[in-house]
Prior knowledge:
Layout: H1 3-15, H2 19-34, E1 38-45, E2 50-56, E3 68-69, H3 74-81, E4 86-88, H4 91-95, H5 101-106, E5 111-119, E6 122-131, H6 138-164
Antiparallel strand pairs: 1-2, 1-6, 2-3, 4-5, 5-6
Helix pairs in contact: 1-2, 2-6
Amino acid sequence: MTTSHHATFTAELSAATTADAAQAALHKLANALIDARLFTVMTVDMDTELASRSYTSDPENYPTSGTKPIERNPWFDQVHDDHRMFVANTLDDIDAVFPDAELIGSLGCGAVINLPVVHKGELIATVNMLDAAGTYTPERQKIAADGLTLPALATLLTVAQLNDD
Length: 165
């Protein structure tokens, strides 16, 4: 992460007075570091086994309203249980995991990174970045892991604090 991107993110997150502003700072950082045509944050509640979208760059196609049940599958094992990033660089690979692959493709996306956000050893959210097929090369995957993991945790903890106020 470059110093200027880090400084900008830190300033914007520190100044955020709403959950949306905090998550928008993370979105801007992700865009600067690895590109993200579509950016969402999904929080998870394992007690109810529900996920909900707390932030979206595309409210028309991916609104923040409502919840969806958590599905136990290989993606779940990797991201929720093992706390490892999920990466797909083709629409076919996305289609094997996500039922909305057709919509994803129609938005010009064919690559995805789902970055787990872990607090106290438990998954609390995923940061989901999508862009054109082939975008998330091994180099960009490393940049995402190294440059967005801690900012994502800081963002989600800030959101939790703002929601408690």
